[in-house]
Design a protein that fits this description.
By secondary structure, this protein is of the alpha+beta class. The chain has a 3-stranded antiparallel beta sheet, with helices on one face. The longest helix is centred in the C-terminal third of the chain and has 16 residues, at about 65-80. The chain has one domain (about 10-80). About 30% of the residues lie in helices and about 25% in strands.
Length: about 100
């Protein structure tokens, strides 16, 4: 684990993917990418026909812990999904990954 990754890379990717899949259904989901950029981690989700979600999910210099960052990501995913064409107006709930 480097300082950039909040925990083991495989575990980080697994937890983020589980969080995304708790909000975006398998038949809607096209791609999940967790990538490094400078000193932060970025998440890109592509779903539906052309809907995309991109967000910085971790920066070790932020005042948030990794667990707090995941909680914020849950909120952001729920907010995004209800505004997409494939899930317009649907209130879905994110599952916080253990």
């Amino acid at each position: 684990m480097t300082d950039l990754w909040p925990e083991d890379q495989e575990r980080t990717r697994s937890r983020v993917a589980a969080l995304v899949k708790s909000v975006v259904r398998d038949d809607e989901l096209r791609e999940i990418r967790v990538e490094t950029s400078s000193l932060s981690l970025w998440l890109t989700v592509v779903a539906g026909d052309d809907e995309s979600f991109e967000r910085q999910i971790w920066n070790p210099r932020d005042d948030y812990t990794w667990e707090q960052s995941l909680e914020r990501l849950c909120d952001a995913m729920v907010d995004w999904v209800c505004e997409t064409r494939f899930a317009w107006g649907q209130l879905r709930h994110a599952t916080f990954p253990e």
